[in-house]
Amino acid sequence: MTETIESAAQDDDRRPPLEARRRPRVHRAWIVAAVTFVTIIGGAAFNSLPGLLIDPLHTEFGWSRGEIGLAVSIDMALYGLTAPFAAALMDRFGIRRVVAAALTMVAAGALASVWMTASWQLMIYWGLLVGLGTGSMAMAFAATVTNRWFVARRGLVTGILTAAGASGQLVFLPLCAWIVDEHGWRPASVTVALAALVVVPFVCLLMRDHPADVGLAPYGGAYVAKPAPARGAARRTLKVLFKAARTGPFWLLAGTFAICGASTNGLIRTHFVPSAHDHGMPITAAASLLAVIGIFDVIGTIFSGWLTDRFDARRLLAVYYALRGISLLFLPMLMGPDVRPPMVFFIVFYGLDWVATVPPTLALCREQYGEDSAIVFGWVLASHQVGAAVVAFLGGVARDVFGSYDVVWYASGALCAVAALMSLVIRRVRASSAAVPSG
């Protein structure tokens, strides 16, 4: 009898709390995903600014486009290098604390830039503060939320959360372009600072770090007790890097994602507007085209997440990069003072492909590296941002030296062809194979 009681007590200890056994009408995971979506939009508001402000800053302060591009490249590099540590910090201190601090840092950097008078201040405010802040809310944030709160529909949720950055671009690009055109660049900088601050209360009130915090199982999965805070965040992050770096797929994923960053954030987001302006197109019209990319980016990324749940991620990546490379090779011929049908076709086509690479890349990280996948993806994202940083800087230098961006468009198109080939040689991991274990 005593053994029976003890056995029942042990079974009861293994059961989730009562709340976990009740099925809520709307699973809390979707609420957390919605808060994450809004948070990424708020944090991404600043990303709408650099391409709009290159010409105004050049005109007002006389800074070269290379100098301004360097500040953007520092921002992008720190964005990427912060991401893997942010994933580990979320394991240690919780998602809410890390994200709230990051939003505050973005707001501080954007607001402080209003009073800058020297290019070194641009490096500090745009590069250091905003780079560290946005990096802490990078795609590793979306990966952490997806891994903790979802078992089913991970590809779809990854696509939706990835599209949040594009949604922020869709919301803020036309608004900021109008503000810059009508009132100058300083009010636009204040606007994105306020956008970051407005999101903080939503994070503090509605975000939860783990399904177990509210007694729930992850969506589509079994109840899992909340793990103890992971100490030594920096050490663990570096340890995961060194372990992953001994595998071939890591370098292929990092290389392809570096080219992804070079051909999107570094090239189009930073230099499309000034390049179109070089051909006589008004800044507001060019910014509106970039915002339209955001519309189709949302569609393409969500659809890519749906495809990733069903098809080989390697082949999807190869197709995405090949199509992107072809479109970039044609872009110099489409530039002009007016928005014509061929340019509209490019915008739609490129928008569908913009960050469609993220769901399959994250799926491959998850397949290869298991429970360390969020941190590994953070390092892969770091390569994405380093690639973006290099092209953000070199694109400005190329414009100063050659008087146009054409050479950068062609070089990026060729790099995308290389990325397509690299994607196809990433090895498969069988379902029974063990992924790289946690340190």
Structural notes for this entry:
This protein has 439 residues and is mainly alpha-helical. 77% of the residues lie in helices and 0% in strands. It is built from 19 helices and no strands. The chain has helices at residues 2-14, 18-21, 28-44, 50-61, 65-93, 95-112, 119-135, 139-149, 154-183, 185-206, 233-244, 248-263, 265-278, 283-308, 313-334, 341-353, 358-369, 373-402, 406-424. The chain is globular. Residues 1-15 and 431-439 have low confidence and may be disordered.
Head-to-tail CA distance between termini = 43 Å
Q: Tally the helices: what do you get?
A: 19
Q: Sketch the major β-sheet.
A: none
Mean pLDDT: 81
Question: What class would the helix/strand composition place it in?
Answer: mainly alpha
* Strand segment tally: 0
Radius of gyration: 22 Å
Helix percentage: over 70%
Strand content: under 5%
- How would the global form be characterised? globular
* Sequence stretches where pLDDT stays below 50 over 5 or more residues: 1-15, 431-439
Order of helices and strands: HHHHHHHHHHHHHHHHHHH
Strand-helix topology:
Elements: H1 2-14, H2 18-21, H3 28-44, H4 50-61, H5 65-93, H6 95-112, H7 119-135, H8 139-149, H9 154-183, H10 185-206, H11 233-244, H12 248-263, H13 265-278, H14 283-308, H15 313-334, H16 341-353, H17 358-369, H18 373-402, H19 406-424
Helix pairs in contact: 3-8, 3-9, 3-10, 4-5, 4-13, 5-6, 5-7, 5-8, 5-11, 5-18, 6-7, 6-10, 8-9, 8-18, 9-10, 9-14, 9-17, 12-13, 12-17, 12-18, 12-19, 13-14, 13-18, 14-16, 14-17, 15-16, 15-17, 15-19, 17-18
